[in-house]
Amino acid sequence: MIPKLHYISQATSPKEQLENIQNACSSGAELVQLRFKNASEKKFLKLAEEAREITFHFQTRLIINGDYKIARAVKADGVFLEKNDSCPIDARIHLYTWQSIGGMAAGLQDCEALLTKQVDYISLGPFRCMATKDRIPPILGLNGYTAITNILKTETPIIGYGGITTDDVTDILKTGISGIAVSGVITRNFNTIQTFHRLLKASSTEEQRHTFK
Which residue from 3, 36, 95, 209 has the least number of CB within 10 angstroms? Predict the structure, then answer.
């Protein structure tokens, strides 16, 4: 089962990345996506190995952004592939059977394409404008989420992303979106993880109860 809250790591240096991951895990994060672009493969591998040690200690799931080879090497829980990354079908061949694959979508056509590639979940957005990115797809908002989920009618979890705050969660869930991915809001205040969990009703205990009952 895919957790409803995904923390996307954020920082400009490996040291800060690890500090933020540590803080997220100690604050109750159930899933951390390690995102660190424009690093060499060697540097990213080292960072992933250290992130795996932290997440393993806290029994937090670790997802590697963009590189299925590194996800396999460090035995992360899965890989998340953005639009310019490898095809999920190719990644699946190289990963362990228990490792999950997530894919990024900017609209209905992207979602439909990813579903044919048998991803385990789709991250759909942006929900609202993100000042940190130069080239962003059209904003989807609540209306976009509702329209897409109504057409897809899929059991594959759809995770919303893009400028989401605690104030948005209740309305987003009403659209049919399964969960959310958050970066900046959590990085600025790791205590918001517990608030997100309450709003999503996605604590570890509740997730296990749902899974095994």
Answer: 209
In angstroms, rounded to a whole number, what is the distance separating the alpha carbons of residues 31 and 158? Answer: 15
Q: How many domains does the chain have?
A: 1
Q: What CATH number is attached to the domain comprising 12?
A: 3.20.20.70
pLDDT digits (tens, 9 = 90+) for 170-194: 999 999 999 999 999 999 999 999 9
Give the SS3 label for residue 191: coil
Average pLDDT, the chain: 92
Task: Report the helix count and the strand count for the chain, using DSSP H and E.
Answer: 10, 8
Tell me which residue of 177, 69, 72, 166 sits closest to 123, measured CA to CA: 177
Nearest to 104 by CA among 53, 50, 160: 160
